[in-house]
Write a structure and sequence with these properties.
Blueprint: H1 5-24, H2 30-37, H3 41-62, H4 65-77
Helix pairs in contact: 1-3
């Protein structure tokens, strides 16, 4: 499926906005988690530092997974 030039721009912009939004989501509850878990600020920061890495890495890792599984039998059959 190919998008036009303008549609591609808006899809790309939406992906960027969504990424920034999900990365910033835990910042609103940062203090609540720090108090609830009784952790130091350094440990809580470390936990929340991993979150954006997972948000970005998950679609990259698992986004192509079904495609690879669909192609594997075809490649093995040759």
């Amino acid at each position: 499926m190919a998008f036009g030039r303008q549609a591609s721009f808006w899809v790309s912009a939406a992906v960027v906005v969504h990424t920034f939004w999900t990365i910033a989501a835990p910042a609103m509850t940062y203090r609540l988690y720090a108090e609830e878990w009784r952790l130091t600020h350094t440990v809580t920061t470390g936990i929340f530092a991993i979150y954006p890495i997972v948000v970005v890495a998950t679609p990259i890792r698992f986004g192509t997974s079904p495609t690879c599984r669909q192609r594997s039998p075809i490649l093995l059959a040759r």
